[in-house]
Design goal:
By secondary structure, the protein is mainly α. Helix content is 58%, strand content 9%. A two-stranded antiparallel sheet has the order 1-2. The longest helix is centred in the last third of the chain and has 24 residues.
Length: 106
């Protein structure tokens, strides 16, 4: 099977983001659409150096392939980006204000 050179941080950051949201903010809506999620991922990727590995299509990277310092950097950057997003959201307007849900639940 042919292998491709892949930035494993892209995969691992997405997994870390999902873990962080499930573990630390289980019932909070952190982003309201795919563009916000993509923006958060780009912020994470901009702050972590790329780590490339040769992987086949059926191989998946995991956090154990990072050294402890890289794992901690990944965790702390993801946590920081999520906390920044939550802080911004707490000062912003409700994206669903004036929607039909307000008529029923507001």
């Amino acid at each position: 099977m042919e292998k491709m050179l892949v930035n494993i941080i892209e995969y691992l950051a997405l997994g870390e983001l999902e873990d962080c949201l499930c573990r630390e903010h289980p019932h909070q809506q952190v982003f309201h659409d795919a563009m916000e999620r993509e923006s958060m991922m780009q912020q994470v990727l901009n702050r972590i150096p790329a780590i490339y590995m040769w992987l086949a299509a059926d191989e998946c990277p995991n956090r154990n392939q990072l050294n402890p310092a890289e794992q901690e950097l990944l965790r702390s950057v993801v946590r920081d980006v999520v906390n920044q997003k939550l802080q911004q959201a707490s000062f912003g307007a409700d994206p669903y204000a004036g929607s039909m849900s307000e008529a029923f639940y507001g």
